[in-house]
Amino acid sequence: MKRITVIAAAALALWTAAGVQARPFDAIQKEGTLRLATEGYYAPFAHFEGKQLTGFEVELAQMMAAKMGVKYEWKTISFDALLTGLQQDRWDLVISSHGITPEREKAVTFTQPHYCSGAIVMSLDPAIRSGKDLAGKTVSVQTGTTYMQYMEKNLPGIKRLVNFPTNEAARNALLSKRVDAWVTERFIAKELQQKNPNAQLKQGELLLVERIAAAVAKDNKSLADAWNKAFKDALADGSYAKLSQKYFHEDIRCP
Ligand code: ARG
User: pTM for the full model?
Assistant: First the structure.
């Protein structure tokens, strides 16, 4: 009886450890498929064209998998559930334009940043351009983003911060004039303006700058190393530059 209890306890301990343990790179190699996750509503970084997931980060991750010698599969899920899924070993790597922050670094391990960017103020009113101009205004932003956190902390004068589950919904709130301003990513803002040159939409100033990286489970060093090696290779052999030109007509790598 006693022995059975001991064995059961040991099995439970093993099972618990295995249940939350991230797969190191050699386990991924052995099984053959890298499990990737992204939000999928963040054009042109990761979005659907019909049923096909595509975009800069999607193509980049697929390029990394090829260089790492593994196949890949995608999961798409809401932005605020992505990093938690890593801790539960639901996927191996998240690539969804996450800015590296000390707070997130406590929960996950970031790879080398794959681009540098920032948050920008967008408005239909040319007088609203900077963080200061947001005082007394209603502002839309995506839930769970560094942008939302920044405004909560640094811009107490904002009359109402309205958060949306996707960046697209936050954009639509501005386009339908339900808010005075929308805070979003600068390359998304640039593309939107280029596609609608006649729109009233005005790009304001940068609110914050950040380094954007993929994330793996905390301390899954072997996977981060394999990704970083593939990434370094892509920077050196011109494939990163080519992909960046395709989507942004410029090289968006971090300086
Ligand atoms: N860079 C911002 C952040 O780190 C926004 C990211 C939004 N990403 C997305 N897939 N919707 O929070």
Answer: 0.91
